[in-house]
Amino acid sequence: MKAVIIGAGRGSRLRHLTEELPKTLVPILGRPMLDSILDALAAGGFKRSDVVFVCGYKAEVIRAAYPDLTYVENRDWEQNNILLSLLCAREHLEGGFVSTYADIVYRPGIVADLVRSPHDIALACDTDWRRRYVNRSQHPETDAEKLRADGDRVVEISRRIPSEAATGEFIGVMKLSARGAARLLAAFDAARAAFAERPEFREGRSFRRAYLIDLLAHMLESGADLHKIDTHGGYMEIDTLEDASLADAWWRGGD
């Protein structure tokens, strides 16, 4: 099983912080976000030789700073989005994988919890997610990748879920067994064949610009079983300069 870090984009809403650095190297809590992610992956049993980084913007900077990781490059990162970025690492996915966004900080135990999950597809879900949006003006709750669940079974995942109806926020970290990976790859191929030439895949986005949750939602509607494991805080996304300024207070507050 591999660990895949999806980190090709620039993170333009961090403005000057990403002029010279890829987003994942922006210091949060006194260290690059990538260091925190690697610690979390290590807690789940992944050595650095198990880690595949999908790079794009400032790829040479991250390759030089972390030469012990395996790299695949998303050369079209300015034109596509998270889903196609993940699939740049397709050759590393078939045996099962844990994937993670690159612009987040989360408690290390989350990856260990996912790896222990008996389910083929398990998503990490922050049930205390709304606390981080109280003073967050540049990234509203309507942007959150929300999910609804019946017990631990995910029944819907979408940014359009009303906040009051959401079980929590998908934090961008998930585990797929070899069987789960096969289902995701088959779903991706089928969706690409059906939607690649159409103007819209889901929620106004083309297939090329699709988010990971777009494919997960498509799989749910096709009958796939997705489950969640919860974290009650212990997670934050750093998407804007405002987020970076709030990070220390969020973390000290238990979020």
Molecular structure report:
The chain is α/β, with parallel strands linked by helices and 255 residues long. Helices cover 28% and strands 24% of the residues. It has seven helices and 13 strands. It has helices at residues 33-43, 59-65, 82-87, 109-116, 178-195, 212-221, 241-252, and strands at 2-6, 27-28, 31-32, 51-55, 70-73, 97-101, 104-106, 121-126, 146-150, 153-158, 168-176, 227-231, 235-237. The strands form three sheets. Strands 1, 4, 5, 6, 8, 9, 10, 11 and 12 form a nine-stranded mixed β-sheet that branches. The chain has a two-stranded antiparallel ribbon with strand order 2-3. A two-stranded antiparallel sheet has the order 7-13. A hairpin with a 2-residue loop joins β9 (146-150) and β10. α1 (33-43) packs parallel to α4 and α5 (178-195) packs across α6 (212-221). It is globular. The model has no long low-confidence stretch (mean pLDDT 96).
Low-pLDDT residue intervals, each spanning 5 or more residues: none
**Oligomerization status of the protein chains:** single chain
Strand content: 15-25%
Radius of gyration: 17 Å
Tally of DSSP β-strands: 13
Q: Write the H/E string, N to C.
A: EEEHEHEHEEHEEEEHHEEH
